[in-house]
Amino acid sequence: MSLVSRWVCVLMAGMVMSVVCAEPPFYSDKLNLMVAVDDHGQARAVATPQDWQRRRAHILANMQLVMGEMSPRSRRCPLDMQVLEETLGLHCRRLKITYVSEPGDRVPAYLFLPQRAGKLPAVLCLHQTTSIGKGEPAGLGGLANLHYARELAQRGYVTLAPDYPGYGGYQCDPYAMGYASATMKGIWNHRRALDLLQSLPQVDPERLGCIGHSLGGHNTLFLAAFDERVKVAVTSCGFNSFAKYMGGNLSGWSHRGYMPRIKERYGCDPAKMPFDFTEVLGAIAPRAVFVNAPTGDSNFAMSGVEDCLRAATPVYALYGATDRLRAAHPDCGHDFPPAVREEAYRFVDSLLR
Questions:
Q1: Cα–Cα distances in Å, from 285 out to 49, 227, 237?
Q2: Half-sphere exposure of 258 (CA within 13 A, CB side)
Q3: Do the Cβ atoms of 224 and 210 come closer than 8 Å?
């Protein structure tokens, strides 16, 4: 049964569950998250967390109209982690590994294991658009301000930095594998990365976070929206409202590295899109999100980030959790400067320590 005739109604223990329902409703005003359409097609005010869960289910379903359906649990298989090389670094070990995302598909990654006793919190670290992929957050090249997998490991976190499809050492074709978007393949791989972290004896499976810049910044939000195991998300230069992305031209989101349906079905028109980042951010509530949105980011205009923050704040307020939605606006371009990284790391510490 296709997603046209069903939408996600329940999220249980971090696993998406589907039931047969009508097609998810289209919300033309995605700046107002405090409205949910009932079973009779009537818009009702969101007044309780239970009301919000209805709107949230619609958001997840509408995301899948664009990204393609979330893979079923049956697609899971043994992770079969293989260690290719091991390097002893400052207070931690760095392992170059691969893990099985689904039958016939191995994802390359770097795994950092701090030399500390006891169960540790863990953070999934997603890279930006860079040819070296996982090597950048691992501190093996690229920009020094994006070496967060290594930096967090030195702070005592188990960290995992996988490659996104088409980057680093991972040249897979999501479309040949049956996916409607590279975005959904990335979400699936990152959910399996959480499975891997939870399987490690060094990791406390209840204390998981995710961090990413640019490409990794929006993939962090996508993962957190679909997987409640992510207790804290750090997104750097990763999003704004679609209407303010490149003047409303969504072509940059519609190529094969992202979501082709944005062009094929919705004509790259923000007004026709079934979801927006206002809703993605709200869907994560009441879990914690730290947003780095520089004033001079040429990819994601800060005013569009502010639109999303304003839209999501009432949802967090509904849960009494407004302190769990935090933003920094450094005076720089598309970057993650040291002072803001330190602020983000302290925010993660406050949730996972």
A1: 10, 12, 20
A2: 21
A3: yes
Q: Is the dihedral of CA 306, 7, 175, 274 positive or negative?
A: negative
For 220, the token pair is: 């962090």
Contact (Cβ atoms closer than 8 angstroms) between residue 234 and residue 220: yes
- DSSP label of 170: B
Residues in the chain: 353
Residue 204's pLDDT is 98
131, amino acid identity:
S
Closest CA to 162 of 201, 118, 105: 105
Provide the pLDDT for residue 18. 37
Please check whether residue 332 is in contact with residue 295, taking contact to mean a CB–CB distance below 8 angstroms. yes
Q: List, for residues 164-200, the tens digit of each pLDDT value.
A: 999 999 999 999 999 999 999 999 999 999 999 999 9
> In Å, how far are 137, 239, 338 from 144, measured between CA atoms?
9, 22, 9
> Which residues lie below 8 Å from residue 53, measured CB to CB, with a gap of 6+?
none
Residue closest to 312 by CA, chosen among 322, 299, 301, 302: 322
Q: Quick check: 282 and 59 in contact, CB under 8 A?
A: yes
Low-confidence ranges of the chain (pLDDT < 50): 1-21
CA-CA distance, 123 to 149, in Å (whole number)?
8
User: Which residues are CB-neighbours of 325 under 8 A, at least 6 positions away?
Assistant: 281, 285, 288, 289, 291, 309, 312, 313, 316
CA distance 180 to 338: 37
pLDDT one-digit tens code per residue, 251-301: 999 999 999 999 999 999 999 999 999 999 999 999 999 999 999 999 999
Give CA–CA dist 53/199, Å, rounded: 29
Q: Sort 242 into a burial class: Cβ within 10 Å, 0-12 / 13-18 / 19+.
A: buried
**In degrees rounded to 5, what are phi and psi of residue 171?**
-110, 75
Contact status, residue 231 vs residue 146, Cβ threshold 8 Å: no
